[in-house]
Amino acid sequence: MPFTAQHAEHGRLDATQPDLGCGVSWETIHRARATLHCPACDGRMVARVSVLGLPHFAHRRRTPDCPLAGESAGHLLLKSDLAAAARAAGWDALLEAAAPHGAWWADVLALAPDGRRFALEAQLSPITEADVRDAPSGTRRTRCRCAGSTIGSAHGRGWRRSRRCI
Q1: Residue 120 in contact with residue 110, Cβ under 8 Å?
Q2: Are strands 36-37 and 44-49 parallel, antiparallel or unpaired?
Q3: pLDDT attached to residue 162
Q4: 8-state DSSP, 103
Q5: Which of 19, 41, 83, 132 has the fewest CB atoms within 10 Å, i.e. is most exposed?
Q6: What is the mean pLDDT of residues 122-139?
């Protein structure tokens, strides 16, 4: 259930923003059955609303190799909250953002007014410190700092020592 999709005319769409980040209403995209593509794998997507009323995008066909496929509702809500907090602080926030060279993906890429960039990761499932240390391998090359966010009782709390956490 990704929050982002690529539209041929409007560019990148962000379902967490009222105007989808490009001045277009959700109804325009959802009802028109617009042609959409995944920003990660280029697979075809559709605009949907979850049973809880959450607008999002979904792959038309199962895509197990896509980095945006298979995220839980809790993970999506945490990503949305991270983006909303960054925006409320006066920063720009890009959901499901890729590094220019494609070596890593950030759940939320927070962009400070002074140009600093932070890759924010939403973590709900068990993970080891080694997994976290290895995951954003290209962030140093692109001068992007990485921070993690967790709620509840995520297993393997040792990973918090290897990343800044909020």
Answers
A1: yes
A2: antiparallel
A3: 45
A4: S
A5: 19
A6: 64
The pLDDT of residue 20 is above 90:
yes
Angstrom distance (rounded) from CA 120 to CA 117: 10
**pLDDT above 80 for 73:** no
Radius of gyration of the chain (CA): 16
> Could you give the CA distance from residue 103 to residue 136 in angstroms, rounded to a whole number?
8
Residue-wise burial string across 86-123, b where 16 or more C-beta atoms lie within 10 A, e elsewhere = beeeebebbbbbbbeeeebbbbbbbbeeeeebbbbbbb
Q: Whole-angstrom Cα distance, residue 154 to residue 72?
A: 14
**Torsion angles phi and psi, residue 138, rounded to 5:** -100, 5
Task: Please compute the mean of the pLDDT values over residues 91-104 and round it to a whole number.
Answer: 81
Backbone angles phi, psi at 133, to 5 degrees: -60, -35
Question: Do you know the residue count of the chain?
Answer: 166
Residue 76 dihedral angles phi and psi, to the nearest 5°: -60, -45
d(CA 25, CA 19): 5
Nearest by Cα to 68 from 17, 107, 26, 123: 107
- pTM of the prediction? 0.68
